[in-house]
Structure formats: C-alpha cells, structure tokens
Amino acid sequence: MRGFQRKMMNDDLTINDNLSYFKADDGGLSMKGKVRTREKCPKCGAGFKEIPETDIICPECGRRPKTFYLDLYHQQTKHKISRDLDGNILDSYKRAYRLLERMRKDIDDFRFDVKDYLPKEIEQFRVYNLFPKWINNKKSKGLSQVHIHKTESYIKTYYLPFFQNLSARDIRT
Q1: 41, 63 in Cβ contact below 8 A?
Q2: 36 in Cβ contact with 68 (< 8 Å)
Q3: In the chain, where do the E strands start and end?
Q4: Are residues 134 and 159 in contact, defined by beta-carbon separation less than 8 angstroms?
C-alpha cells in the first residue's frame, strides 16, 4: 500500500480539514427557499408543520396538505412558485422539494433564471403556442398558400403530437 493510501486510512475523515474539498465556497446553500403550503388541516383546522427536507404534516392528526408552493429568496427578491417546469401543480412535498433542489443546482451551474420557473413565462414558450406565430410569420413573408397549407398539415399531423406540451427552450438538436 502506498504511503498516501495508508495515511488516508489512518486519518479520521470526519475532521473538517479532510472534507473541505467537498464543500462549495462556504458550504452554504446557493439560494434560500422553503417548501410551504397555504392550507390548514381540513379535519382539525390546525396549521401544517414542516419536518425539514422530509414532509409537511398536521401535528394534531398527521394529515398532509394537497398543494404546496416554494417560497424563494434569490438576489434579494422573493418568489412564490406553485407549479413545476411542466406546469403541474406541486401536489407533494417530494415534488416541491425536488424542484427546489433543481433550482439550487441551476444556480450552482450558473444557469438559473427565475423566468424559467414562472407559469406565465413557461406557457409563452410552449410549442403549441409558438406554431401559430410561425405560420403567421410565413404568411407575412408572402410564401405560397400551398407551402403554408403543407406546413399547417405537418404541424397538425406530426409536430403537435410529438412535441405537445414541450417548451421550445428544452428542444435540442
């Protein structure tokens, strides 16, 4: 066994100096955020309580809320996100927490833009919303009616069924 390997085996790996290379800058989170709910327990009326990074439950009867949202603080701005990137309601703590972690990863990778997570912005880039604009653009260029009709046919037959609710920002070649 090499000296370095023998030394590492004998060292206590829980000492902070040995683990410092695993930490980013200060080891903190890149964005503060919490999973929350607006609901009260429908059975007993109590407020729900969060078990950090695990779940939100009613402390009285153990029920879970039906909807969640993310309360975010990024670049000194507060945001409330209640849907995931596909436009689905955050209906479980796990789904909401997973989205929060994805946002933190995007920040760490320098790819985060809060607009990617706002429902209005997401809807704007849905493929089904962009096809009519594409056809209007073709019409404004004075392209032939045969070409426009053929393009509309392809959209209806092939493109829409394939892309459906996909965001144009997610399409890669």
Answers
A1: yes
A2: yes
A3: 32-36, 49-51, 55-57, 69-74, 77-81
A4: no
Closest CA to 81 of 89, 91, 73, 69: 69
The DSSP letter of residue 46 is P
Helix (H, G, I), strand (E, B) or coil at 136: helix
Query: pTM for this structure?
Result: 0.62
**Where exactly are the structural domains of the chain?**
28-112, 125-170
If we measure between CA atoms, which residue out of 22, 30, 28, 20 comes closest to residue 105?
30
Q: Which amino acid appears at position 106 of this protein?
A: D
For the CA atoms of 164, 168, 172, 173, the dihedral, rounded to the nearest 10 degrees, stands at 80
pLDDT in tens, the chain (173 residues): 444 444 444 444 444 443 333 334 455 566 678 899 999 998 888 899 988 888 999 998 889 999 999 988 877 888 899 988 877 899 999 999 999 999 888 888 888 888 888 877 777 888 888 899 999 999 999 999 999 999 999 999 998 898 877 777 777 76
Write out the E strands in 4-158. 32-36, 49-51, 55-57, 69-74, 77-81
Here the tokens at position 84 are 């995931």
